[in-house]
Batch of 2 targets.
Target 1
Amino acid sequence: MRAVIQRVKRAAVAVDGRPVAATGRGLLILVGVDRRDGPDDARALAEKAVHLRIFEDQAGKLNLSLRETGGQILAVSQFTLLGDCRKGRRPSFTAAAPPGPGLSLFEMFVDTCRALGADVQVGEFGAKMDVELVNDGPVTLILDTRGEKG
């Protein structure tokens, strides 16, 4: 699984102009599911995201996790994170999981985040979404359970 994690002051998702989810201070996590991914990937990504120390402590050091700050997560499924742009000019999405397994593993990621104590809001799987955010820092990181870069 691949994730782009952005520390945000706030984030929101709308579909066809209809608000779907919104958060305050915390993380916007864009999640892409690879066709080779399984439950271990979903759990590992959630563990890493919830415990990642990317919030500032009183000394201004990135030393606090989402749990320690009481922040929220807005999780958004995004298959295009698996796009391979190495050849030609059109990305190939053959590495992305089909919708059924993709949804199942995305939901497992969300459920694991919640089990770890995170307040998680979710975008609408498979929908064309408008995602708004106010990046905090900016702090943006990429996590990949396969350790590969596309």
Target 2
Amino acid sequence: MSRPFLFAVALSAPAALLAQAAPAPQSIPRAAFITTMDGEFRKIDTDRDGQISRVEIDKFQRAAALAIVQERRRRLFADLDADRNGQISPSEFAKVPIATPRTDAATLMRFDTGRDGKVSLLEHRTATLANFDRLDTDKDGVVSALERTAGPARR
């Protein structure tokens, strides 16, 4: 599943939270990257106007953060249920602290080169492809596993 890596390009910290158990790096062709990033853009663009606003980004990130918290709770419950009988007292479960991940729309809003408070598909694609191209150090149109683990080239 390469989606957590690809989404991380666009949403940095929240995506990193989504990539809890990231798979081994794999090569990513540029065309597949574009398709995936466009799909991620459409998931955030809930009003389907071709632009993502700060409100849409905040809402998407909050939902992603909530999903992470719910999964952590599910795993924690399974860990606490030592005898696997499906029961943990409410008082035991309530004592377990679970931090909610922080959201930050400014991470994606930095792509708003038009400074109109919205990120268009073109702005989103330009910024994310710049990162893809930075990672594709041999300029063959594919980010290989080696290039992903090596990180961006210094220019």
